[in-house]
């Protein structure tokens, strides 16, 4: 856990897993039942209570969660679904999997989340749903998004892959919309290696997703084997192999119990970063609107490039040279070759997303990041900023 007693390179991410998770996984292995069963049911129950949702359905990934939610919402081939361009490809990929068209929208340059007026402008007679993405864990303007969706009779499916635990107007993300999709991928705030969850208040949709996650079969294998019911089963629909496993659920249950403490630890790191960077004119710190709290899955620092003789990738390379792992969220979807080829998007289509993309850097933020590691990240960022500022002054002087 120590990264050579904190002196070595600082990774961008490290999952916070300990003896409790190892013990819980060990118990599942000893039980002789590894796949979806009683631990999954317990994890779903505890998760729904934690976020304040009526139902929670566990699946094998956040991508599967998005796909199943779209299916449950009745989105079909030929429909349109609006997603922000500034997201991971999985958000739009799930729409494409159905045969529907992901319609990209621009972002609010302050929060970097879906811009409600731009979303409203892109609605057509074919639009069936919108997928707001809480980037880095910062909740979208859900009141504005829901009001537009309600007006046009659209389903709202939140991509909350980053947003456990985030709150919007005192409610946890997961309890706000018709469907909310979480990810438990290895780098997420609750990590089970792979995994996902859909929360919903719609009982019928929850039941359908339970059936569809396991080949469209009415009763899952554990229930058939353990309850002494007949081994007979009925395939009700063409479903998917999207089930979760008890091995993952056992880890998830332990992680969920630590979720608030892990969030506090990430928040403290975010506060230290923001205190250190806020007075530097070349740096822009992330903001939490007054009615929301972030999960702080990501700490996205933005560079004011007009102060620096540097572009973002050069700045990141300098940080890496100093032993600081960093990343970037996200390269907008319309700049990827697939989205250009398949849907005809072009550079320049979403200027605000592009502008933020060129200046954003994600810094390490995870509960196991030690105090001195946070100090090293801060020093490296400030040093690099000063180097790039001096280089700019020098080149301005030379060209004068
Ligand atoms: C915004 C967003 N949505 C969806 C996903 C997909 O989650 P998963 O990797 O669990 O399929 C990710 C994963 O990284 C993500 O960042």
Name the poorly predicted regions. Answer: none
Radius of gyration: 22 Å
- How many structural domains does the protein architecture include? 2
Largest sheet: 7 strands, mixed
Q: Name the CATH homologous superfamily of the largest domain.
A: Type I PLP-dependent aspartate aminotransferase-like (Major domain)
CATH topology of the largest domain: Aspartate Aminotransferase, domain 2
Order of helices and strands: HHEHEHEHEHEEEEEHHHHEEEHHHEH
CATH class of the largest domain: Alpha Beta
Helix vs. strand class: alpha/beta
Small-molecule components bound: pyridoxal-5'-phosphate
Strand order of the largest sheet: 1-9-8-5-4-2-3
Topology:
Elements: H1 19-31, H2 38-51, E1 55-59, H3 62-72, E2 80-84, H4 89-98, E3 101-105, H5 116-121, E4 127-130, H6 142-151, E5 155-159, E6 167-168, E7 171-172, E8 179-183, E9 196-200, H7 203-212, H8 221-226, H9 246-257, H10 259-277, E10 283-284, E11 292-293, E12 299-303, H11 312-321, H12 337-343, H13 351-357, E13 360-363, H14 371-399
Parallel strand pairs: 2-3, 2-4, 4-5, 5-8
Antiparallel strand pairs: 1-9, 6-7, 6-11, 8-9, 10-12, 12-13
Question: Features of this protein?
Answer:
13 strands; alpha/beta; about 400 residues; 2 domains; binds pyridoxal-5'-phosphate; three-stranded antiparallel sheet; Aspartate Aminotransferase, domain 1
Characterization of the model:
By secondary structure, this protein is an alpha/beta fold. It folds into 2 domains: 19-257, Type I PLP-dependent aspartate aminotransferase-like (Major domain) (Aspartate Aminotransferase, domain 2, 3-Layer(aba) Sandwich), CATH 3.40.640; 260-399, Aspartate Aminotransferase, domain 1 (Alpha-Beta Complex). The protein has 14 helices and 13 strands. The protein has helices at residues 19-31, 38-51, 62-72, 89-98, 116-121, 142-151, 203-212, 221-226, 246-257, 259-277, 312-321, 337-343, 351-357, 371-399, and strands spanning 55-59, 80-84, 101-105, 127-130, 155-159, 167-168, 171-172, 179-183, 196-200, 283-284, 292-293, 299-303, 360-363. The chain has a 7-stranded mixed beta sheet, with helices on both faces. The protein has a 3-stranded antiparallel beta sheet with strand order 7-6-11, with no helix packed on it. Helix 3 (62-72) packs across helix 7 (203-212). The longest helix has 29 residues, at 371-399. The model has no long low-confidence stretch (mean pLDDT 95). Bound molecules: pyridoxal-5'-phosphate. The site of pyridoxal-5'-phosphate (PLP) has 14 residues, from helix 3 and helix 4.
């Amino acid at each position: 856990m120590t990264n050579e007693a904190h002196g070595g390179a600082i990774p961008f991410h490290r999952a916070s897993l300990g003896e409790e998770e190892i013990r819980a996984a060990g118990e599942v292995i000893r039980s002789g039942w590894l796949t979806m069963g009683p631990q999954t049911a317990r994890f779903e129950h505890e998760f729904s209570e934690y976020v304040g949702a009526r139902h929670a359905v566990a699946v094998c990934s956040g991508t599967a969660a998005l796909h199943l939610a779209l299916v449950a919402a009745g989105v079909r081939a030929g429909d349109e679904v609006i997603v922000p361009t500034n997201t991971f490809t999985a958000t739009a990929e799930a729409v494409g999997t159905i045969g529907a068209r992901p319609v990209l929208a621009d972002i609010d340059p302050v929060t970097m989340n879906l811009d409600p007026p731009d979303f409203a402008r892109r609605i057509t007679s074919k639009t069936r749903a919108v997928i707001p993405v809480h980037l880095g864990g910062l909740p979208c303007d859900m009141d504005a998004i829901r009001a537009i969706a309600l007006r046009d009779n659209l389903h709202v499916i939140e991509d909350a892959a980053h947003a456990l635990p985030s709150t919007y107007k005192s409610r946890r993300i997961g309890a706000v919309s018709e469907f909310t999709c979480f990810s438990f991928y290895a780098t997420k705030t609750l990590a089970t290696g792979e995994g996902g969850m859909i929360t919903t208040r719609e009982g019928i949709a929850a039941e359908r997703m339970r059936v569809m996650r396991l080949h469209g079969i009415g009763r899952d294998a554990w229930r058939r084997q353990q309850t002494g019911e007949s081994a007979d089963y009925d395939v009700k629909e063409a479903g998917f192999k999207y089930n979760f496993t008890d091995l993952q659920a056992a880890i998830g249950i332990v992680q969920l119990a630590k979720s608030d403490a892990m969030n506090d630890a990430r928040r403290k790191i975010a506060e230290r970063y923001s205190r250190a960077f806020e007075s530097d004119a070349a740096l822009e710190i992330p903001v939490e609107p007054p009615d929301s709290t972030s999960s702080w899955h990501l700490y996205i620092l933005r560079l004011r490039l007009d102060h620096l003789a540097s572009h973002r990738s050069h700045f990141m390379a300098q940080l890496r040279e100093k032993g600081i792992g960093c990343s970037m969220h996200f390269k907008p979807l319309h700049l990827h070759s697939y989205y250009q080829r398949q849907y005809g998007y072009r550079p320049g289509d979403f200027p605000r997303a592009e502008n933020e993309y060129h200046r954003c850097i994600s810094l390490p933020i995870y509960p196991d990041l030690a105090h001195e590691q946070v100090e090293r990240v801060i020093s490296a960022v400030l040093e690099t900023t000063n180097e790039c500022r001096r280089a700019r002054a020098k080149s301005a002087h030379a060209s004068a």
